[in-house]
Amino acid sequence: MITWCATWALLTTHTWWLPVAIVVVMVLLALSLKQPGQAVVGVSASSAALGVAALRMRQARASRIQPGFRGELSGRLLTAPKTVAEDLSFVQLETPGHPVAVPLLIRDVFAQPVPRGSMVQCQATVSGSQRPGVAQVIASCDSLHVTSPPKGVAAVAEGVRASFARVAQHTAGSTTGSLLQAMVLGDTSGQSPQMRQVYQHTGLSHLSAVSGANVAIVVGAVFFLAGLWRVSMRWRVVWAAVALVGFVLIVGFEPSVLRATISGVLALVGVVAATRQEAIHGLAVAVIVLVIVDSEMAVSYGFALSVAATVGIVALHPLLLKPVARAGVPGPIARAVAVAVGADVATAPLVASMAGQIPVVSVVANLVVAVAVAPITVVGMAAAVCAPVPVVGDVVAGLLLTVIAPCAWWIQRTATALAGLAHPTLPVGDDLGGILIAALMGAWLVALISVGAWRRLGVLVSVGVLYATGVFGVVGLGVDVQPVLENPRVVVVDTVAEAEAIELNEGAGLGGHVDAVVVRHCRQVSKPRPLQRVDGVPVVCPGWRVHVDGTQSFTGGQ
């Protein structure tokens, strides 16, 4: 924790006083608890991480990639292009002479997929970025030119991904096939922004990010198969290690994958040494190693969510499992509830800081789809291995994917159905207040379950169900959130006064119905403004914060 927090502070503020203060406070706390060993380890690991991060920041300042740069940008793609909006794609580019990957926005949607590991070049413009990191820059270009395809191990991995994607799309269709690609290989390039939003609103987006669960399932499957062949324990570990390395090479070096991989390696070492380590210790070592190897991990939301979910499961699972089991819930379901609630409670504050809202249906969604996850991971991985094999690969992989296609369909339909509820998410804000609200709600949920207050918990769950299904809106007890409009008709005016005074009736010469009035220049005032006119037409002030009480206010230029 010391190492992570100190590195985060350095990359966020680009000053030394805050990271040094964090290290000093944490060391004093460890010494007050009579843990001198923890203090020594904390200082050593933090010094290494801060030193490496400072060196990378110095290299970034010396790099030619600075705000205002215009010219040729070339390098290797670390991620496949992902569509983030209409005619806009995003990649991470590894560029010679720059210590970290450069985020690159491309004003183009690729008709043909560009594989990860390709060498590319473009005429780019570099701008400053507010995102914390080693180098606070972002590049943009109109088009991307591939100069050479992936080579070596990257070419083999891309062959597996491309073969699997082809078979998945042919066997399961576009939507379900893209979900299979995401769940098995972490390839979200086939998912539309709309479907990614559906999974985010229902708390299922983690299924599209290969993580510790996938690693555990793959390693567990290898141990199981090796046991059937009566292989010795040491050779089982070797088989599992080989499978783990191959798995990482195929799915890529995402933060959650690397965190789970290091934890998995430590677990395998423990098996060989015939020792049993605490899961939280393995996680701590993984965090320290990754923050030193890649300083950007300290400010990565994906890494933070992965670590938080793991901590939540490890810390809260024992606390939640016993009271749920005592209530008469069958063992497998009780364990699934404890895991889902633990991960959801731990990640809710981070989700609130990212999106300003938390998914109300997350626990229910994860429980409903839990039974379908393991078959997709195990059978899907077997299909991915078979897909590149000449002649018979497509047939065998197609048969395997036919078996698990109903599981993927079930997950996709569950997410779509729950996202279609009136209020699948609860707006709490992305500021400190919203983060505290999310944390407090999670704490109350854990407290009610742990003390067995089932009546109060039942009331809380009922309130959540009524909110999600929109019953509150029907009886007038909640904010009536309007659905997203397809191709809305808007009128743009200069001031709020014009928005309130303009005639919007059929005879006003505007060509018919108007969905909203957009104000070009919203004056910076502290008093909140209403979201709609007296006739019910919404008034939109771009960049203002929308509150759950039906008003909007200036937010300091956001």
Write down how many β-strands occur, each being a DSSP E stretch of 2 or more residues. 15
Briefly note the CATH topology name of the domain at 70-151.
OB fold (Dihydrolipoamide Acetyltransferase, E2P)
CATH class of the domain at 70-151: Mainly Beta
| General form | globular
Assign the CATH superfamily of the domain at 70-151: Nucleic acid-binding proteins
What does this structure look like?
The chain has 558 residues and is an alpha+beta fold. Among the domains are: 2-62, no CATH class; 70-151, OB fold (Dihydrolipoamide Acetyltransferase, E2P); 490-553, no CATH class. The protein has 18 helices and 15 strands. The strands form 4 sheets. Strands 1-3-4-6-5 form a 5-stranded mixed barrel. A 3-stranded parallel beta sheet has the order 10-11-13. The longest helix is centred in the first third of the chain and has 27 residues, at 36-62. It starts with a helix and ends in a 5-residue tail after the last strand. The model is unreliable at 472-483 (pLDDT under 50).
